Amino acid sequence: MGLYDNKIVVVTGAGKGIGKSIAIAYAKEGAKLALLDRDAENLVKTEKLFRELGGEVFTQIVDLTLPGDIVNAMLKVKEIFGEINILVNNAGLGRSKSPYELDLEDWDYVLNTNLRGTFICSREAAKVMRGNGGGSIVNIASTRALMSEPDTEAYAASKGGILALTHAMAISLGKDKIMVNAISPGWIETGDYSALKISDHEQHPAGRVGKPEDISRACLFLTNPENNFITGTNFVIDGGMTRKMIYEE
């Protein structure tokens, strides 16, 4: 019996990387998972993994730029499981282009996926949550909402918007006992961790590059019912990098 035994957890962008790690973490705690992703191949692989582990899982291909996809997915989750207890808005993408060359098509694609998609997922899940006594939403933002590298305007704007959306929805949904928080990851390596250089790790005050499990554990903490006094906040998980003053010698 885990802390999240039989809780219904929806994770977007669950086919790989951080989203997959988050889903596995909840499954280990006894949750039932609804995994959403636009990448059919990765979603099938993740679903197979969960079934091999004996977990109860529902998967659906969802393009977050299509509001109808999101609405239908949340209705399907409610139909299958009866309720939604936790939503983790993890899916996101970027376009690296100079602001001189970033066209509106790219801008809209990033904003509609990351920011508008997060809002619609939250809105639709919250409709279900308020009917079953409340719930918890975690939005995966980014340290790019707080600091930037060149040519990341659309991505930074979308993640900054997610932080504002988080505290706005925390206020609006609090009366329905729905907690809304954000996590802003820094460098979280989802590839070959052993291939990282010593200098990659040493530049972090924490002494290492982040792992997907660092974000998974934070999700479990924020959605723990005993932590329901935490809402509207943003957890920066970056090994201390946003607190480090960096000057070239």
Automatic annotation (TrEMBL):
Pfam families: adh_short_C2. The lineage of its organism: Bacteria, Pseudomonadati, Bacteroidota, Cytophagia, Cytophagales. Coiled coil: none annotated. It comes from the Bacteria. Belongs to the short-chain dehydrogenases/reductases (SDR) family. GO terms for molecular function: oxidoreductase activity, acting on the CH-OH group of donors, NAD or NADP as acceptor. This is SDR family oxidoreductase. PANTHER family: SHORT-CHAIN DEHYDROGENASES/REDUCTASES FAMILY MEMBER. InterPro entries: NAD(P)-bd_dom_sf, Sc_DH/Rdtase_CS, SDR_fam. It comes from Dyadobacter frigoris.
